[in-house]
Amino acid sequence: MTVDYRIRPIPEGVADYFWEEAYRRQALVARLLELFRTWGYADVIPPTFEHAEVLAAQASPELRAEMYRFLDRDGSTLALRPEFTTPVARLVGTRLYDWPMPQRFCYAGSVFRYTEPQAGRQREFWQAGVELIGARSPEADAEILVLTAEALDRVGLRQAHIVLGQMRFLRGLLDHLALEPSQERALRWALERRSEPALAEFLAQTALSLHQRRVVERLPLLNGPDPRPILAEASDLCLNPDMEAALADLAAILDVLAGYGVLDRVDVDLTEIRDLGYYTGITFEALTPELGFPVASGGRYDELVRRFGPDAPAVGVAIGVDRVLLALRRSEGPGSRAASPRPVAPDRYVLTHGDPRALAQVQAWRRAGQRVQVEVNGRDLEAARGYARAVGISVLYEWRGDGFREIPVEGEAQ
Amino acid sequence: MSAVSHLRFALPKGRLAQESLALLRQAGLPTPPRENGRRLVLPSSDGEMAVEYVLAKPWDVPIYVEYGAADLGICGLDVLREGRRNVHEPLLLPFGHCRLSLAGPASRRDTPLRYESQPRVATKYPRLTRDFFVRRGINAEVIALNGSVELGPMLGLADLIVDLVQTGSTLRANGLVEFRTILESQAVLIVNRAAYRLKATPVQRFLARIRSVVQAKGEGP
After folding, report:
1. Pairwise CB contact (< 8 Å): B91 & A293
2. Which of A197, A225, A292 sits opposite B194 (nearest CB)?
3. Segment B18-29, tens digit of pLDDT
4. pTM exceeds cut of 0.90
5. Could you give the ipTM of this predicted complex?
6. Contacts of B68 in chain A (CB under 8 A)
């Protein structure tokens, strides 16, 4: 079989990253991992593919449908990881269950989903995130939220905002209302789409007590940038202990967030019901003005680890590396360096003429962390100038027997 | 950021344009003088907010809004459902009423749809059409066209069509009758999910103004 690589060099949904774009990507991932480690998170590198049934353990139907599956030689079905949370839960559940809790893990790498490439994301896209396993407290939830805000801050998205929900509030309400499945779908749809007519239609078509009706009518108001009044409003609407417990939990989390001084970065939304499969408590998304899509999402998943071993509550976040990069590029505006990619220019481009003293100097610079590129094609000074101009190097250094001489490269880069 | 809240609004060209503008005007929002400029920033009369208008093809409005290229927009429910864009849709608007219908030659035998074997269906709405047939277990061949769908049966291109119907006169003129309504459509106000949060105050102000006009119309004579 012959493939004409000029016509279809790579399949749809994957990308080559090179030069400055690849450098930025690696640097961003390195910064995130470095930050996660300062919070006590240990590195983990799960396999790129594993048993499909493991990865699908508590995935939502959408995520299941998006998994890349293939057959192993023995006929079992494998899949490329669509996210990192399940592999980490599997690792802890099957192998590390007796290590003292809590356990903290951080990761970065690519995941694979069969979706339309969108908002900076290909079918292979990158996530960096953390999982905090074996802690159920508001402090644990708050740690993940603060770390998310800190991470987005660190990478330059200073206007990022976190929208925090607690799905037990709405689930408590739905349990209490005990709706027909079609009615429940209608209510969820109305809330998810923020559709006032759909909510009105639901209310018109569903038999509810006066009090229940009042609660549902006021649900859309339970979100906004000022969390405390929303919780106060919501506390009037509780129909059972589950809903009350959800609010008490959120209030305790907000206290910790206030202690960290990040309360102003968090919106509360009690109608947030993204159907993500494994989440059981808080859920959240991070938004930033540069992008119409969330740059991070996460939540509490207390029932996932027990699928693989002894029970352990857990909470985590995944940051969308591709979307962060896109948002950063947007914030720099068109015409920025990242908009027209180039190789990262070396700090020094040198002609050594093979002199050992020159090479020693070059090595000293490199060991000090400078990027030093040595001419290896035997170019003379003029040819080296032409090369430097072409690749965007502004100064070159030539060895003159007793030291390097700095030679400016005239003219515009092409 | 300036003190005056700034929203970007995707205004659909064509069928919904005039009524969208009328609605915005009634809501006390500034509107572009004519439907020509591509991008315009206009402050509201009370200086409470500024709206930047972007004129877009109706089919592109949900895309602009999903991507956050516009914070808000107006489009038809038909376009929104066909595109399956992930946006908020807080308000239905009292204009642009029409229906997405399955139609075919008046001469078609009066038998249930589910007896059809691989009907060829011409449409501008391939996704909604496919969904409609899939839900009934019918393996239809969907032929996606960009316009003049009603000519399909006459030209022997398709057995049936799925198209937007307002009065039905276009169908009748082409010897077609409606068999089923797939979707009742009207104009809808959509909001970007991130803008709904990050620009909550101006977005809610904007919604309140539109809501009051919509409600006044609903309760009017």
Report:
1. no
2. A292
3. 999 999 989 888
4. no
5. 0.82
6. 291-293
